[in-house]
Amino acid sequence: MSLATRYMGLDLANPVIVSSSGLTGSVEGIVRCAEAGAGAIVVKSLYEEQIHAEAEAVLERSHLPTGYPEGRDHLELYSREEAFERYLTLIREAKEAVSIPVIASVHCVSASGWTEYTRRIQAAGADALELNVFVLPMDIEREPRAYEKLYLDLVEGVRQNVSVPLALKIGPYFSGLAHTALALSRRVDALVLFNRFYRLDIDIEELRVVPAEPFSDPQECVIPMRWIAILAGQIECDLAATTGVHDGAGVVKQLLAGATAVQVCSTLYRHQDIGYVRTILDEVTDWMARHGFRRVADFRGLLSQAKNSDPEAFERVQFMRETAARGLMSS
Ligand SMILES: Cc1cc2nc3c(=O)[nH]c(=O)nc-3n(C[C@H](O)[C@H](O)[C@H](O)COP(=O)(O)O)c2cc1C
Q1: Which of 116, 202, 219, 253 reaches 20 to 30 Å from 66, CA-CA?
Q2: Domains of the chain: which residue ranges?
Q3: What pLDDT, in 10s, does the model give residues 85-137?
């Protein structure tokens, strides 16, 4: 039996990838992922904003007089360079330490950041790049198309600068998700659906806004699963699932929907054990044995909308028919 997978042109021993997070923010963490059997890892994102913030903090601490702009510029540039170099070192050391593919992740705020950082990350030896992009579409004056164009332009800009495989990790907040996904799929090698961004909650006793639970629960996996099932076979790049995949069953569901790779994160935090990847892989293998599948390709996409005997299942959004059919309406 083989779990071998080809994701964005990269050969993976299996489709389970440890997603970008603190788990993959150090060489030690990355080595642990590889030892646990992960097919690949996505390194913790490099955030351009963070680099700027660090450089500003250094400037503040330096007490350089504001009337000395060259000195301030030089120090800021030096600090930025140093912060960026730390990320490049992480990529280089990770590449030396493990033999599984190392996918770098980057989130920039400026056009120059996207092009310069991605080019230099590729030069540091990353096997592929995952662009972690999210613009909260909250500007009431801005047309949906303007938001979509932003993603398309960004990906095109990066594509011109790098030749390694390119993945784009996005959220679900698009007015025309299927259409946008198709356009994006012509410019990248994989779409990663869906990032689970930082969430807010409200503390009703303290009457203030607070950070929400950072980790997903397994029920959340049905959201990327549905969209992967709808898009599989219709778009022109690979699909990877992220959010809510907590066990082997979660991985199998995403593969049946049509994902090529499946990313895990919260479950490893919740188990406080990166080694839990091994359990997930064992569960996938057991399931394949029970169902007589020898290779992932034998069942990938089997329940995608295109291949499903009940394609309308993916279009149902109201409870009416289900509840009526089960006789729940009269109860
Ligand atoms: C503590 C933490 C840090 C994360 N950092 C990043 C990051 O740097 N870049 C990124 O693209 N996603 C990041 N994520 C999102 C995860 O990669 C993942 O997409 C998300 O948690 C949903 O998957 P899950 O349900 O398996 O946790 C982070 C998530 C957590 C919980």
Answers
A1: 116
A2: 5-303
A3: 999 999 999 999 999 999 999 998 777 888 889 999 999 999 999 999 988 89
Question: What residues are in contact with ligand 1 under a 6 Å CB criterion?
Answer: 19-22, 44-45, 105, 132, 169, 195-196, 214-216, 242-245, 264-266
Token pair listed for 111:
């056009």
What is the bridge-based pairing of β-strands 40-42 and 46-47?
A: unpaired
**CA of residue 19 to ligand 1 center, whole Å:** 6
Nearest CA to ligand 1 atom 10: 20
Q: How many angstroms separate the CA atoms of 25 and 5, rounded?
A: 24
* Size of the chain, expressed as the number of residues it contains: 331
Q: What does the alpha-carbon distance between residue 156 and residue 139 come to, in Å, rounded to a whole number?
A: 24
Minimum-distance ligand 1 atom for the alpha carbon of 195: 19
b/e sequence 181-217, b meaning 16+ C-beta within 10 Å: bbbbbebbbbbbbbbbeeeeeeeeeeeeeeeeeeebe
Rounded to the nearest integer, the mean pLDDT of the chain is 91
**96 burial via Cβ count (<10 Å: 0-12, 13-18, 19+):** exposed
Q: How many CB atoms lie within 10 A of CB 163?
A: 8
Q: How far is the CA of 44 from the centre of ligand 1 (A)?
A: 8
Q: With beta carbons less than 8 A apart as the criterion, state whether 42 and 263 touch.
A: yes
pLDDT for residue 50? 81
Q: Do the bridges between strand 208-211 and strand 200-203 make them parallel or antiparallel, or are there none, so unpaired?
A: antiparallel
For the 5-303 domain, the top CATH level (class) is alpha beta
Indicate the top mutation candidate among 51, 195, 269 to test ligand 1's pocket, ranked by most ligand atoms within 8 A of CB: 195
Please tell me the distance from the alpha carbon of residue 98 to that of residue 71, in angstroms, as a whole number.
Answer: 41
